[in-house]
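ARCHIVE CARD
Drawer: 12
Card no.: 0347
Subject: one protein chain, sequence and derived structure
Cross-reference: see card 0346
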Amino acid sequence: MWNFFGSSPEYAGRDPGPRVLEIQKAVFYFVVITLIEDSVANFTMALPTFTNILCIEQTRVNRYTSDLQHTPQTH
């Protein structure tokens, strides 16, 4: 029976060898890069929504300040 890292139980405690270490390193880098890509994709997908919210808020602020400038002030 082989375990996930590619070494059988009868070799337990022995040096796994360069090929197994290369496979482990490749799997590790693949997982890390996939997680980073997923995070970047989620961020870039959320970015337009965030930008739209900022634009809507800026429009509201501009409208409010414009209304303030055009309302007659009574002292």
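Annotation on reverse: The longest helix spans residues 18-70. Residues 15-64 form one domain.
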